[in-house]
Design brief:
The protein has 204 residues and is of the alpha+beta class. It has helices at 27-38, 63-68, 111-138, 188-203; strands spanning 7-12, 19-24, 46-49, 73-74, 81-82, 87-89, 95-97, 101-103, 106-108, 143-148, 156-161, 169-173, 180-183. The chain has three domains: 1-61, no CATH class; 62-109, no CATH class; 125-203. A hairpin with a 6-residue loop joins β12 and β13. The longest helix has 28 residues, at 111-138. Bound molecules: zinc ion.
């Protein structure tokens, strides 16, 4: 194996919001990957080496590494910008330095923000599990293809097929507990037939 080592590059445009870190063996390859990711032309971006990030090619860059290299990372719960010297001002105007909690690629500005994030995640995931079992119980006859709605989603959806369907349908809960059922336009007739058959077999 004489493969060239993969290195980290930062690709930027004139817009400070638009930068991306890419791992590649050459500057040109990194620049192309970065331009694609930002969604702009190769000519519109600049590309520089980012030696401190080289070691994270396989693991993803931890939030702590960004901060130690003078970057700002937003709190995964409240969005506050966390950096080496950051803090927040409370309602009385008192400045409190952040007490960052690092978790892999994420940082929380305080232990309280971490706790609040974890309970939001647990709450949504419990809601999602309840949604899925409610749908399966309500319509055990449908053939479910997938369910989606774990954190960070709020809207929960399930996709299903039924006997005679070409495209299938979906069920969703926008977060308020009401179940909304949809069937693809091309399957409306098949659905009516299916429901009629279900009603018939249920009545027997
Ligand atoms: Zn926070």
């Amino acid at each position: 194996m004489s493969a060239k080592p993969v290195k980290a590059f930062i690709i930027e445009t004139d817009d400070p919001e638009e930068s991306t870190i890419q791992f590649a063996t050459t500057n040109v390859a990194a620049r192309r990957q970065g331009a694609d990711e930002i969604g702009t032309d190769f000519e519109a971006v600049s590309c520089k080496r980012l030696p401190w990030a080289d070691q994270y090619v396989d693991s993803g860059i931890p939030a702590l590494a960004y901060i130690e290299n003078d970057w700002h990372v937003s709190c995964a719960n409240c969005g506050a910008m966390v950096h080496k010297e950051s803090g927040s001002t409370d309602d009385d105007g008192n400045y409190e330095p952040h007490e960052p909690v690092y978790r892999g690629e994420h940082v929380f500005c305080s232990p309280g923000c971490e706790t609040s994030h974890d309970s939001k995640v647990a709450e949504q995931n419990a809601k999602f599990a309840a949604f899925e079992s409610r749908v399966r119980e309500l319509r055990p006859d449908l053939q479910y293809k997938s369910f989606r709605g774990a954190y960070p989603y709020i809207t929960m959806t399930g996709e299903f097929m039924f006997d005679g369907a070409k495209y299938g349908g979906s069920v969703r809960d926008e977060g308020d507990g009401a179940l909304l059922w949809f069937v693809a336009n091309g399957d409306k007739a098949a659905w009516d037939q299916y429901e009629a058959d279900q009603a018939k077999s249920g009545a027997q």
